[in-house]
Amino acid sequence: MKPLRHRLGRRATLGTACAIWAVSAVVSAPMLVFYTTFYTDDHRTLCYIEWPDGPTTQSHHEYVYNVVFMVMTYFLPILMMGYAYLRVGIELWGSQSIGECTQRQLQNIRSKRRVSS
Questions:
Q1: pTM for the complete prediction?
Q2: CA end-to-end span of the chain, whole Å?
Q3: E strands along 26-114, which residues?
Q4: Cα–Cα distance list, 17 to 10, 42, 71 (Å)
Q5: In the chain, what's the furthest Cα-to-Cα distance?
Q6: CA quadruple 87, 103, 107, 113: dihedral positive or negative?
Q7: Is 12 helix (H, G, I), strand (E, B) or coil?
Q8: Fewer beta carbons under 10 A from the terminal one: N or C of the chain?
């Protein structure tokens, strides 16, 4: 919104990228730790998750993991995008035309105001 405002430096940008990678690694760690394989009699390999507190259908750990995973990978990004779109929309809707307004621009502004009120 403010193109001339000070931006993040090189170290802050690198730190942000490293933090994102670290959080991603932590969120993915249970899959690395608790997944296991099982070899069947007909020479197939099955990959499944074995939580420490019981099978997948009864595991409280899995429930908490899935809720946290959904919030971090679905709801949080949607909220952040919604906030960004809201800020852009407010900025564009409230902006004035650059230079002189023509008759057509004034009519467009009036029609927008009529529709929104």
A1: 0.63
A2: 26
A3: 35-39, 45-49
A4: 11, 45, 20
A5: 80
A6: positive
A7: helix
A8: C
